[in-house]
Amino acid sequence: MMAATPGGALLVLAVLLPVAGILVSFALGGRVAEKVTLALAPLGFALAWLIAMQVAATGAPIVYTIAGLPPPLGIALRADGVSAVMLLVAAVIVAAAAFYARAKFATPEGQGESRGALTFWLMLQAIWAALILIFLGGDLFNLYVALELLTFAAVPLVCIDGRPETLAAALRYLLFALFGSIIYLLGVALLYGAYGTLDIVLLAQRVAPTPVVWTAAALMTAGLIAKTALFPLHIWLPPAHANAPAAASAVLSGLVVKGSFFLALRLWFYVLPALPTAAPSAVLGTLGAFAAIVGSVLALRQARLKLLVAYSTVAQIGYLFLVFPLAAGGHAWSATGWSGGMMQVLAHAFAKAAMFLSAGLLAEALGHDQIAKFKGAARALPLTFLTLGLGGLSLTGLPPSGGFEAKWLMLRASIASGQWIWSLPILAGGLLAAGYVYRILAPALADGAVEIKAPPQRSREAIALGLAVIALALAFAPQSFFHFLEIGRPLAAGGAP
Q1: For labelling, which of 167, 285, 346, 447 has a CA lying 20 to 30 Å from the CA of 482?
Q2: For residue 483, what is the enclosing H or E element?
Q3: Angle in degrees, CA 301, 302, 307, rounded to 5
Q4: Is the pLDDT of residue 47 over 90?
Q5: Taking Cα atoms as reference points, which of 436, 407, 435, 434 lies closest to residue 423?
Q6: How far apart are CA 158 and CA 288, in angstroms?
Q7: What angle, 0 to 180 degrees and rounded to 10, lies between the N-to-C axes of helices 81-105 and 257-265?
C-alpha cells in the first residue's frame, strides 16, 4: 500500500497554484490574467525547485495521497526524479513564453481588453496546470483527464488570431487529439476491467502478459503517439506549430508534445515493466527512426523558417522514441539509454523553444520568415541569429550541447546493447539536421541587405538566447544529475519492479 511521504504537500501546492491563477484570471479579466501569470511564474519555479530538492534529499519519490486515502480507494500524486526535472523545465519555459508574449498580448492602460489576450493568458496557465498533473499523476484515468485538459488548452492557442489557415490547423490538431484520446481511454478501460485499479504502482505489481493487457497497451500507445505526432501520425503538427504565435509555438513544441510522450514512458517503463518488451520497443524505435529521417528531409524542403523548425520537431520527436529499445529492461546499458532519452527531452525542449521565439522575432522584424530572403539578416539581427545557431547546434548534436550529450549517450547504449542499428538514424538525422540549420544560417550570413520593419526588443532576444544557452549548458550536467533521473524508475536497480 502506498503511503504519503514528507513533502507531499508541495505536490498539492504545485497543482493548485496554476489552477488558482486560472480562476482568478477568468473572474477578473485579461488585464489581470497577464499579471497573474507573470506573478505565478517565479512561484511555480520555486515550488518545482523545492520538490526537486526533497526528492534529491530522500533519494526516493515524494507521494501525497488525496484525502488520506491510499490507492486503490484514493488517488496518489507522485514526484520522482524525472517528474521533478520536468516540473522545473515546464516552469522555466512557461515563464519565458509569458514574459516574451507581453509585447503581443499585454493590455496597456487605457485600452480595452481583447479576446485574444484573455485567451492566451488563460490557456497558457491551463497548459501549465495540465503538464503538472501529467508529471505528478499516479493514476491512468486522471492522467487521461490531464491529457484532455492539455489538448483543449493547446488547440485555442493555435487559432488564437482567427485566420482561416490557423483554424484549419487547429481543427486537424483537434481531430488527431480526439482520436488519440478515445483509443487511449479504451485501453484504460480494459486495464481497469482486468485489475480493478488504475494506480500505476499497483498495476505494475499485478499486470501479466495476457491478451487483454497487450490489447490495452497497443490502444494506449497508439493514442499517445497520435498526440505526440510520431511518424506517420505527424501531419497535424507542422501547420499547428508553424501558424501559432511564437510564444505559443515555443510552449507547444517545447512542452506540450512532451506531455503525451511522458505518459508513454510511464506506460511502458512504470506500468508494464513485467511485459516482454522486445517487440513493442522495436516497433516504437523503428517509427522513431523513420521520424528522425523523414522529418529532417521534410525540414530541408521548407521555404518558411517556422515550418522548417516545426518539421524539425517531427524529427527530434523520433529520437525520443529510441529510448524504448535503448533503455528497456534492467541491463547495465539501460541506464545509459535512459539518460540519453531524458537528455534529449530536455535539450530539445529548451533548444526548440529558443528557436521558435527567435523565429517570431525574425518574422516581426522582417515582416516575413522566407528563408530565401534572409541575405544579410544576420548583420541586422545578430542576437536572433546567434540564438538560432546555438539552438541548431543542439539539434544537430554537436558539442558542447545537450543535444550532443543525448545522442552520444544513445550511441553508447546502442553499441553496448548490440543494437547498433539504432545508431544509423541517430547519425543520419544529425547530418540532415546540420543541413537544415545550414539552410537557415547560410543566406543570413551572406552579403545583402534587409529592411528592418520593427527592431526586436533586447529583452525578448535575451529570453530566447537564455533558453538556447540552457540547451548548451546541459552538456555539462554532472553524473549526479543522471543518478537523480533514475530515482523512482522501477528497473533502475536492475531488479524486478
Answers
A1: 285
A2: helix 479-485
A3: 145
A4: yes
A5: 407
A6: 25
A7: 170
Q: Which residue has the cell 547546434?
A: 393
- CA dist 286 → 230, 248, 291 (Å): 11, 30, 9
CA distance 388 to 464: 9
Q: What's the count of helices (H) and strands (E) in the chain, helices before strands?
A: 21, 2
∠ CA 460-461-462, rounded to 5°? 90
Round to whole Å and give the CA distance between 233 and 217: 18
Closest CA to 444 of 355, 365, 371: 371
pLDDT band at 319 (very low <50, low <70, confident <90, very high): very high
Per residue, what are the HEC states of 379-417? HHCHHHHHHHHHHHHHHHCCCCCHHHHHHHHHHHHHHHC
Phi and psi, residue 126, nearest 5°:
-65, -40
C-alpha cell at position 384:
536572433
Contact predicate 85/482, CB 8 Å: no
The SS3 call for residue 77 is: strand
H or E stretch covering 78: strand 76-79
What gap in Å lies between CA 409 and CA 423, rounded to an integer? 11
Question: What is the tens place of the pLDDT at every residue in 381-431?
Answer: 999 999 999 999 999 999 999 999 999 999 999 999 999 999 999 999 999
**Nearest by Cα to 298 from 308, 288, 289:** 308
Task: Indicate if the alpha-carbon torsion angle 25, 28, 34, 37 is positive or negative.
Answer: negative
Residue for cell digits 528592418? 452
Q: How many residues does the chain have?
A: 497
Q: Is 329 helix (H, G, I), strand (E, B) or coil?
A: coil
Could you tell me which of 419, 257, 403 has the C-alpha nearest to residue 328?
419
Q: Which three cell numbers stand for residue 37?
A: 501569470
Which of 441, 122, 117 has its CA nearest to residue 305?
441
Task: Indicate the pTM of the whole model.
Answer: 0.96
Which cell goes with 333? 546499458
The phi, psi pair for 110, rounded to 5°, reads 90, -10
